[in-house]
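Re-run with default settings, no changes from the original entry. Doing this only to confirm the output is reproducible before filing.
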Amino acid sequence: MNADKYLEDPVIAQYKSYLMLERSFSENTELSYLEDLSKLIDYLSDAHISYLEASSEVLQDFLIDISEIGIAQRSQARIISGIKSFYKFLLAENLIEIDPTELISSPKLPRHLPNVLTLDEINAIINSVDLSDPLGHRNRAILETLYSCGLRVSELVNLKISNLFLQEEYISVVGKGNKQRLVPISPKAIHEIQNWIKDRNHLVIEKGNEDFLFLNRRGKKLTRVMIFYIVKEHAEKANVLKEISPHTFRHSFATHLLEGGANLRAIQEMLGHESILTTEIYSHIDMQRLREEVIQFHPRNREE
């Protein structure tokens, strides 16, 4: 990795620890931040400028440079995010007096509306599960929980029995940055989980996996890849031809709640989004319903 050569610098080593311990980044995210930072330090080194002395103008030149060599906008945005994080760290540690990235903005990225399943498609996928299969109850519980709670794949595979409060109809979910949130769970999902737990009790569970809810036939926690496979398999069985993934269930969960009249803030809380701006993408999906309501209820549209 290109960033390795800079880890002997005590400031960079400290920043690495900051990303891991204080920002609670995964190893992959941490590596991406350090790799992007190394691109900047390489650029500054060629210009004989210390990262502690880099001005806003110099950083802008670097960003123009990466734009001109054809780095995609999404990658540019990620690099800018990493650089901003680094200079905020330097400012917090009193290593610089002014943050040179303060006026630097990320390129505008196109907002892609996610694929959404209809309720009929959701039902068809869930009903395609063969309950006579030894893992049928597990797969149905997985699909019901994805749709009922709008979970990320990582949240689903790490869901623990000790985090289930089924009598209260809530589950405790560990999301991004190890932040916990309580999410309501539907009676249907509870029913399927209870059926799966009966089957799960007959498994020989590998040590260290005793508390994970969803296991494979060998008694080990499921992988993210396995959840993708389960969703794809049952979408094909249900003859749902859209390009979907486990995340499609999360998008569908949010969209259907909004269509049913749920408050955007409530959806934000349930999804575990830090910013309401992330959740607002679902309001674009629901514009047709909004348009119909305006036409129906606006006083200037009513017949006299």
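The mean pLDDT is 82. The radius of gyration is 24 Å.
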